[in-house]
Structure formats: structure tokens, C-alpha cells
Amino acid sequence: MDTYVKMMFGENAIITPMNMIVQNMGNKVSLCIAQIPNINIRFGSILTHQLILGDAVIRPHVVLESEKFMGHGAAALATMNWMDWAGENVVMNPANINIKQRLGFK
């Protein structure tokens, strides 16, 4: 898979599972906050933050929607418990994934 990924998307491409919150900012702009478990997506740096300008290929497995997080701000969204999303409206679930299990419920 790694060779295929490099051929299709370039030498520095990484494919990884990801949890992402998208917030509509208006005027065709979205704020995205992602949590990527079990992999380091750092690119040649030891400093705390990196701005990565590039492309993203998003292949959703499940999409949920909610209004209950309005006003939380980016920092709160980035550090929230993903299980807070359990029970929210399902927009799409094409693979029929067990949402509570994916969020970490046992």
C-alpha cells in the first residue's frame, strides 16, 4: 500500500485513520480539526507546531451532524471527548459502521 500511496499522491503522502470536526465558517470556508491516532504526521521538524500546505483526500466512513457544540471554539473542539458525538444525527454511514464502537464505547 505504501508504494501505491507514494505513486498516487507523492513521496510524502500518508494514509491514516482520522477523526475530523468540520465547522462551517461561512463564505465557502470550513475550519477542520483532526485527530489522527497512532501515527506521527510530522514532516522533518522537532518544533511543536507545523503549518502544512497541501492536499487532503477525505473518504468518510461515517458523518454525524450536531448543533450542540456551537460556541465551543477551536480549542474546545480539538480537545473534546469524541464520545460526545454518540447519539447525534447520522448524515451518512455507507459502510454501516457501528458508530458507538468507532467512537470508543465498549
Structure, described:
The radius of gyration is 16 Å and the shape is globular. β1 and β2 (29-35) form a beta hairpin. By secondary structure, the protein is α+β, with helices and mostly antiparallel strands. The protein has one domain (18-103). A two-stranded antiparallel ribbon has the order 1-2. Strands 3-4 form a two-stranded antiparallel ribbon. It is built from three helices and four strands, in the order αβββαβα. The model has no long low-confidence stretch (mean pLDDT 84).
What is the topology?
Layout: H1 2-9, E1 19-26, E2 29-35, E3 63-65, H2 73-79, E4 89-92, H3 99-103
Antiparallel strand pairs: 1-2, 3-4
**How far apart are the termini?**
30 Å
Q: Tell me, rounded to a whole number, the average pLDDT.
A: 84
Instruction: Report strand %.
Output: 15-25%
Could you list the spans in which at least 5 consecutive residues all have pLDDT below 50?
none
Classify the helix fraction into a percent range. 10-25%
User: Could you say how many structural domains there are in total?
Assistant: 1
What sequence of helices (H) and strands (E) makes up the elements?
HEEEHEH
Class inferred from helices and paired strands: alpha+beta
Per DSSP, the total helix count is 3
The strand line-up of the biggest sheet is 1-2
Largest sheet: 2 strands, antiparallel
